[in-house]
Amino acid sequence: MKILFIADIVGGPGRKVVRELLPGIKERNDIDFCIVNGENAAGGFGLTEEITDELFSQGIDVITSGNHIWDRKEIASYLQSEPRLLRPVNYPAENPGRGSGVYQAGNGVQVGVINLQGRVFMKEIDCPFHTVIPVIHKLKEQTNLILVDFHGEATAEKVAMGWYLDGQVAALIGTHTHVQTADERVLPGGTGYISDAGMCGGTDGVIGIKKELAIRRFITQTPNRFQPEDKNLVMMGVILTVDPQSCRTEKIERFQIPRSQAENNG
Ligand SMILES: [Fe+2]
Ligand SMILES: [Fe+2]
């Protein structure tokens, strides 16, 4: 079966490129299940209920997130009520929402998804290594086909988690840096791995934000209002070919598709 993972959607430009390119990539690749990371989908920061519904209506099965999920307070109640919207599982339990779930793919296979977050150069939340094992055991009561979105800043932490979970999960896909890495591979135990899947949005900016604004913040060291970059739109992610019997990944392919390739470019 084929599983599509779409990297962090950054603001309106990111949503636009996904809206235009998603139907084509799903059809060409016979996709059975689709995950997106939506932590930056609302103006670059967080998510709203309206945007979440818009993504689900486009045929996305699960939305994962990360540190930016908390940027908009109004998402808290939706995190509680919508099981297809995940926040990192290793935030302290007092927070709203959930970090894992089991969902049915288009071909009827049950797919477990875990959203996990690193803590190197990030908030010192609960240890992802200690937290993830009992979560995997719990999901395995329902399915052995499990995918992890590991949202982290440090490449080494993500590489270490890949080896730690090799053979335990079908794939571990890194997110958060918005820069796609060229290290995709299937680990010896059958876990598909990439350190970072990239992003969806304007690649003429600084990880999806208008470059002039990002540069100004680095120079002045004072806050300014960020806006998503809207030039050179690209959709990035990976496609996994997974054997639903063994729950091992057979192939992982990364992609970067420019908006100019949209079948309907209106
Ligand atoms: Fe992000
Ligand atoms: Fe992030």
List keywords for this structure.
alpha/beta; binds fe (ii) ion; 266 residues; seven-stranded mixed β-sheet; Purple Acid Phosphatase, chain A, domain 2; 13 strands; 26% strand
Topology:
Layout: E1 2-6, E2 8-9, H1 11-29, E3 33-37, H2 49-57, E4 62-64, H3 75-81, E5 100-104, E6 110-117, H4 128-139, E7 146-151, H5 155-165, E8 171-175, E9 185-186, E10 192-194, E11 199-202, H6 211-220, E12 233-243, E13 248-258
Parallel strand pairs: 1-3, 2-11, 3-4, 6-7, 7-8, 8-10
Antiparallel strand pairs: 1-12, 5-6, 9-10, 11-12, 12-13
The chain binds fe (ii) ion (2 copies).
What does this structure look like?
This protein is α/β, with parallel strands linked by helices and 266 residues long. The protein has six helices and 13 strands. The protein has helices spanning 11-29, 49-57, 75-81, 128-139, 155-165, 211-220; strands at 2-6, 8-9, 33-37, 62-64, 100-104, 110-117, 146-151, 171-175, 185-186, 192-194, 199-202, 233-243, 248-258. Strands 1, 2, 3, 4, 11, 12 and 13 form a seven-stranded mixed β-sheet that branches. A six-stranded mixed β-sheet has the order 5-6-7-8-10-9, covered by helices on one side. A hairpin with a 5-residue loop joins strand 9 and strand 10. It is globular and about 50 Å long. Bound molecules: fe (ii) ion (FE2) (2 copies).
